[in-house]
Amino acid sequence: MKNPHIGIVGGGPGALLILMRILELEGADFALDIFESAPRLGVGMPFSPRGADLEHDTNVSEEEIPDFEPPLSQWVKTQPPYVLEKYGVDPQQFDETSILPRLLFGEYLHEQFEMLLKEAEHRGMEVKIHFKTHVDDIKDDIKKKKTAIIAGDKTYLFDNVIICCGHFWPHDHERELAGYFDSPYPPSKLNRIFDHPVALRGSSLTAVDAIRTISRNNGIFTRENSRLIYTKNENAPNFKMVMYSHNGLLPCARIHLEEPNINNADILPSARLKENMAENDGFLSLDFLFDIGYKELLKDKDPELHIQIKDMKVEEFSKFMLSKREAQEPFELLREEYLDGIDSLQTKRPVPWKEALSAFSFALNFPAKHMSAEDMIRLHEHLLPLVAIVIAYLPPSSCEEMLALHDSGCLDLVSVDKFEAKISEGGKIVCTCKFEDKEDIVVEYETFVDCIGQPNIEFEQFPFKSLMKGGTVSQARLNFKSNKGHQNVDGLQITDSFQVVNEKGEANKRVYLLTVAFMKGLNPDFSGIDFFEHATELVVKSIFSAKI
């Protein structure tokens, strides 16, 4: 192979897996530059102080991550006792199904990166790390067939550039009012006493992150006869948290996964996808994908449920599953699922419909860009709200704390149809809850935390302006099957190999996009190490096949 010079923007888990994939290629030669704004590699936002503190756990186990060496469970047992004590980890109880605190998992990823760098050095590969370096712009030169990364007053030329700079969290309202938080990240900004009610928008894992941080600064968790109890601090007698959620539902509790690393090709075989596109005017049918990617999984795993849902489309199925959850009080449902999840984990008993939905959602992520705009709208309106709840996999520790907070009167959940938070002229945060069947409710808060997760990033907000001005990148869009028109969706247009696409619809062979904030429109379930494990494989294969 020829020797490509590759530049990676971002040194988090995505860059780790790119380097890992390149080193797996037999005979591959390369030079690599990694530009990282932080002083460490491998951890990114989720597994560093930018996105976690001691109280935050991962929601993945060794079984659900790439085959690193040494395996996570072995690595844990080699850590000094004082480190494990700091994170509350018992090495004797830790195995391939256990989860770690996020910061400790970040240490594991960092060490993996360091080992890969040593391997690259041993093989004579040139790898340069640019720490504490902010990339200001990226510019593609069609004539020279090079792409430039511009950082400060320096310009670096590459054969290929991979953009994987992680999450983008806004800070717009935080600059206007001290009590308004555009996100709960970094969690250190929530380390304060709140002797008043705190409003949270959302009830996903992002909200749980905020809850676990805020609760520790305003009270204490203790155990009484193995039950977790929460008690408010004396200096915060008026403290409580209120979640405002569109669906009024909490994430599902973590369960045992019978096949945590099921292969995408086993769920959605490429040959069958091509056949469907040929029969469907070049589009992939969501109904077809749901039939082969979800219903067929249930035939053997849960025959009884399969009989119930075999004739349902995504709309009916989602309504059927959500109605069961909506019929119960959310914290009572969480209590039931927490106990059932503990039993599932201890007895290694799977919950087939949840595991199959998680596997289908993950597999669907990659070919989703070939659906029609009509089907993508159906997916977002009906199936994804259910998927977001089911695949969250709330760790047992989070379930316990949420229940303890609710039992103590310090955590409530309000279901709304629409929710708005605005800053009043008097410096208060005015939250408006809108309902279809009753009058709006308006509540004032001193503190508000937006916890909806990675927000939608408009095409115009893409930070590398030369790629936009030069027409190298274009607005993500999907075509309608019915009228030959199109609909703009969030993010940038990309190929199956994550190459950016220009305004003429042509794929760029030099620039690849793996930044989650700019892929939401075409990759509905885009986050997590499992996503990057597969996505980086596609990117590296694309780069090196072109160099042969």
Question: What do these coordinates show?
Answer:
The chain is of the alpha/beta class and 548 residues long. It has 3 domains: 5-49 and 103-168 and 457-545, FAD/NAD(P)-binding domain (3-Layer(bba) Sandwich), CATH 3.50.50.60; 173-251 and 394-450, FAD/NAD(P)-binding domain, CATH 3.50.50.60; 264-390, no CATH class. The protein is built from 16 helices and 21 strands. The protein has helices at residues 13-24, 72-77, 81-87, 102-122, 205-216, 264-267, 270-279, 286-301, 303-309, 314-326, 330-347, 352-364, 373-390, 396-407, 465-469, 529-545, and strands at residues 5-9, 31-35, 126-130, 137-141, 146-151, 154-158, 160-163, 180-181, 197-201, 219-224, 227-232, 240-245, 411-415, 418-423, 429-434, 441-445, 447-450, 475-479, 486-492, 499-501, 507-513. The strands form 6 sheets. The chain has a 6-stranded mixed sheet, with helices on one face. It starts with a strand and ends with a helix.
The CATH class name of the largest domain reads: Alpha Beta
Our count of domains comes out at 3
Distance separating the two termini = 5 Å
Number of helices: 16
How many strand elements? 21
**Proportion of beta-strand residues:** 15-25%
- Let me know the average pLDDT: 94
Class computed from helices, strands and strand pairing: alpha/beta
